[in-house]
Design brief:
Residues 9-159 form the HTH marR-type domain. This protein is mainly alpha-helical. It has a domain at 1-33. It has eight helices and three strands. The chain has helices spanning 3-6, 12-33, 43-52, 57-64, 68-80, 102-127, 133-146, 149-161, and strands at residues 55-56, 84-88, 96-100. A three-stranded antiparallel sheet has the order 1-3-2. Helix 4 packs across helix 5. The longest helix has 26 residues, at 102-127.
């Protein structure tokens, strides 16, 4: 019996975290098995830089919808591993523009088949679902973009307090 599933809406965030952890464990194991020194936490930023580079730190944060400090943490790790390089923007010296290093570029052909497999497996799993998880996530994210979870809870508490 899955107690978190029994808690339904109360455990939604915990179940999403558990699902994320399950994915990350699998992906990490595949990277290791493939002999790649690559952390699952780096993937979205690495792909964005590979596809859009040179790109500024703030642009990464905005495009991925994550905090500036979270981006900085990953960028520091990617730089430490020699996978990206940064240079000051010629237009705005305060901005750091990031691109893949030669090492990062060389790793792309090793990563791409794994990413293609991740996509194929996710597509297969989603195709077998009664409700498309990606669409549900998109709808949930859109609702939270309109009004935060905190604000929604405050409104609910105010309604029930009356």
């Amino acid at each position: 019996m899955d107690f978190m599933a029994d808690m339904a809406e109360l455990a939604l965030a915990s179940r999403l975290r558990r699902l994320s952890d399950t994915y990350w464990q699998g992906v990490t194991a595949i990277y290791r098995q493939s002999g790649l020194d690559f952390d699952v936490r780096w993937a979205t930023i690495f792909v964005l830089i590979a596809r859009q580079g040179p790109v500024a730190v703030m642009e990464i944060a905005e495009r991925l919808g994550i905090t500036h400090p979270a981006v900085i943490q990953v960028i520091n790790e990617l730089e430490k591993r020699g996978l990206i390089v940064s240079a000051k923007s010629e237009q705005d010296g305060r901005k750091r523009l990031l691109t893949l290093s030669e090492t990062g570029q060389a790793m792309l052909p090793q990563l791409q088949p794994l990413w293609d497999a991740f996509i194929a497996v996710n597509q297969d799993m989603i195709a077998r679902q009664q409700h498309n998880l990606l669409i549900s996530l998109q709808e949930m994210e859109a609702q939270l973009a309109e009004k935060t979870f905190f604000d929604r809870i405050q409104e609910q508490l105010n309604r029930t307090a009356k």
